[in-house]
Every structure is written in C-alpha cells, then in structure tokens.
Specification:
two-stranded antiparallel sheet; 2% strand; mainly alpha; 162 residues; globular; disordered C terminus
Length: 162
C-alpha cells in the first residue's frame, strides 16, 4: 500500500507555527496518546512516556506524561465529535498540525502565557462549546510542568493566536 499522506490535507506545516521545543514535545506526547486511544494495540502510551522522558528527563518526564494525558482525557470527556490528529510516527504527517491539534496546543500556550481569555476561547472551540473547566485546569498543569510561564511580549502590528 502506498503512503498518501502528502496528498491529503494534514493541516499547517509545523515549521510555520514557531512552536518551541517544549510545545513540540507536548504535541508529540499528545499524539502518541491520541493514537493509543484510536488503536490501543499499538500501545502509543508507551511512546508517549518515552517521548516525555526523552524531552523532560527522568525527574520531570513522568509528570509531563501524566499532565499531557490528563489534558487529553479532559478534552475527550468534553468533545462529542472525532478529533483529527496527525501520526507522530509518520515523518510526513508529524510535520503538520491539524486544526484540532492546534486548538489543543493553543489552549495550553495561552494558559502558559497568562492569557486566560484566549485560553478559554481556544478551549471552547476545542470542546465544541461544551464544559471546558477540566480542560483549562489540565492545561494549567501542563503549562506549569512543561513550559516557561513568563508572558510573551506582543510585537506591535502582529496578530497572535494565543
């Protein structure tokens, strides 16, 4: 079977989004959890934990893995429709960010940058208008464990998603 991932729309190329290494790691960890739920036999949760350990080390990695899983679970409980994600194990697919993945990560990014209104907005979109309280609590934990909490300055004349 031929791999047609390049021919289909996978979302925005990741290099265009300016993600930090921590944000990319969170996305990769989350993608492994997404695949674990979509195809349990693949045991993506093991790859999620390995990715967390590789990125955040043996002291913080286990906490990062659990925090990201908590955010994924909170989102899964609130959403009603399918979640579109890209396979972390496919080089082509992993180089793109789906709109759903982007909303997930933007919720965490906005939380890390102390922008609660933006975090709320992204979470509402992510959760399709359903309750976002658990998602926001989980995003806070992910941000506290995995990301720098200093607010990013806003360059004049530029739009930001977070």
């Amino acid at each position: 079977m031929t791999n047609n991932c390049e021919a289909s729309s996978r979302g925005t190329p990741i290099h265009q989004l300016g993600y930090t290494s921590a944000e990319r790691a969170i996305l990769t960890i989350a993608r492994h959890y997404f695949s674990s739920f979509a195809d349990p036999e693949q045991q993506g949760w093991l790859q999620a934990i390995s990715a967390a350990l590789d990125t955040f080390g043996h002291d913080t990695g286990p906490h990062a893995a659990c925090a990201v899983l908590s955010a994924v679970q909170a989102m899964r409980r609130s959403r009603r429709s399918s979640f579109r994600y890209n396979n972390a194990n496919c080089t082509c697919c992993a180089g793109h960010v789906s709109p759903h993945e982007r909303a997930f990560l933007n919720t965490i990014k906005a939380t890390a940058r102390n922008r609660p209104d933006a975090a709320q907005g992204h979470a509402v979109l992510l959760c399709e208008g359903n309750d976002v309280s658990r998602v926001l609590m989980s995003a806070q934990i992910v941000a506290d464990i995995c990301m720098d909490r200093s607010p990013a300055p806003l360059p004049v004349g530029q739009d930001h998603e977070y």
